[in-house]
Each structure stands twice: as C-alpha cells, then as structure tokens.
Design goal:
This protein has 20 helices and 13 strands. The protein is α+β, with helices and mostly antiparallel strands.
Amino acid sequence: MRLGRFADLGRLGVRRGSASVAHRVRRAVAPAVEREQLDSAHQLRSAEDVAATLGNMRGAAMKLGQLLSFCSEGVPEPLRVALAGLCADAPPMSSQLAREAVTAELGHPPEVLFGSWDPVPVAAASIGQVHRAVTHDGRQVAVKVQYPGVDATLRADLECAPLLLHGLRHFWPGLDTKVVAAELRERLEEELDYRREAANQVLFARFFQNDQCVRIPAVVPELSARRVLTTEWAAGARFDEAMSWPQDGKDRIGEALFRFVFESLFVLGACHGDLHPGNLLVGPDGTLTVLDFGMVRRFSDPDVAGFAAIMRAVATGDPRGLRRHVEEAGLLPAGAGFSDAEVALAFGGLCPLLNLPGRSEVTARRASALVAATFATGGDQSPVLRDARLPAPFVVLQRVNLGLVALLGRLGACGDWAALAARAWSARPTDCLPVRDAKDVLSGAPDILAGCRDGRP
C-alpha cells in the first residue's frame, strides 16, 4: 500500500516534470504577448493535477494539500485555488460503504439509528465524510463517518513522514525532522479515534458556552463511537463566502477567530490544530462556528508560560528578553552568534500582529509578507532562522499561527490584536468557565467517553 501510494506521488512528479519541459519549449517559441497566457494555463493544469492526486490519496498526503491551500503564501495562486477545495470537499466513499461503516461501529444501520438519514454526504475530507441526519427526538445532526481502512493509509504515510518532511530543511536547515514527524504522528494518531475528538469538542464547547461570537456544536455521545461522531448540525456560511460581506462583519469574524485561538491557548492550555477554512462557518453578525476537533494539542503550564513570555517580549519591544525566552524554549541554541536585534527580527514572526499599534488592519499583502518570510530561502532568509529549531510544542502552534495570519489577511480584518492577546494571557481560568472540569474531560473523563460506543478495535 505504502509503495503504491508514494508511487502516485512519483508519477505526479514525472507528469509535472515532463509538462514543464514541454511548457518551456512552447514558451520559448511563442510570441511575447502569448507567454503570460501560456504560463497561467500551465500553472492551472499543474494545480488541478496536484489537487486531484492529493485529494484521491486521502490521509496525511491530503492534509498536506489542505495546509498548502491556506497557509503557504509562496504557492502560486492557481495552485492555492485548486487546492482550496480540499479544505471542504474531497472524493467521497459510496453510500453503501458509509452505511456499512456506521453499522459496524454502532450496531445498527443508519436508517434504524436515526429518524432520517441522507445517504449523500454533505462534505468529505481527509479521513472521513459527513452525512446529515435527524435523530428520533427531532434533533438535526451531522454524522462524521471515517473511511474504512484510512487508519492503515494514514499510518503508512506517517512511516514515511521524515522523508516527506526532509524538504522543510530547505527552509530551516537546523530543523530536526524526527521531532516534527513524531509530533505529527502523535496528533494524527489521536485524530483517528473519534471518541477522543468527542472529548476535545466537549472541552471547547464548555469553555465557549457563554461566548456571544464563538460557537462549538454539541456532541451526541450515544450516537458516537471510535469511527463515527455525531454532533448537532451547525448552520452558517462557508468562510470564503464572507469575502463579499461588509467589512465590519469581517472585522468581527476576525476578532472572534483571534480570540478563539488565543483564549484557547492561554486560558484552556490547548489549541485547535486544523483551522483551515473548511472547518469554519461564519455569520454576517460576526459569529464564528468552529468544527472538527480531531487535531487538538494540549500544552503543559510551563509551555503556556513560555509562549506568553515570548509574546509579551514581542509586544513590548524587548529584544533581550525575547532572545532569552526563545533560547529557553529551545527555538535557538544558547549563545548563537547573533545580536539581540537580529534574533528579535527573526522571531518576531512567531507573533507578528502583537507589535502593531492600536487597531490595525491585516491586509492580504501584509499577511502574505509575514507568512512568506517564514519560508524564505537563500539570500532572503534570516541567518538566525537557519540555526533555528522547532521543538515539539511549537510544531502545531506554528501551523496555527501562520494559518491565523493568513485567514485574517483574507478577511482584511482590523482589530486591536495586542490588546486581545494581552487579555487572553492575563486571564485566570476562573474568569471564563470551570476549566478544571473541562480539562478532566479532555484527559478522558468517563462522563463523555463512557457515553460513546466502543465500536470495533
């Protein structure tokens, strides 16, 4: 299986390499006025080929495509557009296969378990697809069904993760790909158990239950198992639909998204690691509904304190303090031969919005520059980043950080980001909700996990 799947990637490389050679030949003999058109057409064909290949592969390879689609500003626009569909839609499994999967996990077919069941999925993603249903007591629900065999597919991808991640050393020569691969393996292994996701989702739902802008769908434990997850149906528009809305609504969505990330991190000690547009629903009034809590990273209290120290140093313009904190966090070897100012310039990208004055707009151009700087190479790359490390706690956090900036840039959102961050890292758990109870749920409290069916091992 593993060789076959990576043969698909190999064939993709051969196809695109051959197409690039042919494109260069055509471009060389074409009139100057036609070259731009040829370039655009070649980029679009390449983008569609890459998106189709990753979409059909599912598993970790498809997740790579999802990440590229909203986070990597260095990817050509046609590729980002073609990959964007992976964030919300992917090739679905058949209705019969989905029915068999539900029956295997919950003991009865979906038409018995639910008052009504739509066999046509409303969304399909990297490891599962979502069906709409109505419970016997009249609740509208979303039922996520894991693709049969995707666990073996994902684990096969993860065995080759160090090889796939080797290319990242082009951007960060000091990167330990084994550390990154181990962190991703742990997060993705957790994502395969929907009972774990149910506990994650309950945690966040309890935490934000009184929030006027952030909404988390409730879990239905009695209709959930290891490979089936049932939650209340969430209404709202897709994130990209908001691009045409009035700016004040987009600003409120941006602030809700920023608060969701920072309050989750600094008060709850956890972060949602998969904040791509397909996992977000929005409303014109600024409401934000967050979906898919399969990839959640929990942090220790010392980790959270370290993050706060770094961000405070950025926000207050303290280069000496920032250097001390990034060295303590393991992001940079102690005593590296750089000035404090050089280190501050390089690591300011860990929290690039916190040194902006007052209410500031995150324009698409600013977001692109901030994200692209992270992936700079050659003479454009900071020499500090060539020595940088990425400790395990920062692997998912940096993905969320870059994704947040990119999403705010799409919205052109304006907000007082430093003030929102300071409020989050200064909050006490008692200022929000009974976080102690929520953390018990996240660690596997029986009140939620016992309510989910065991399913098959």
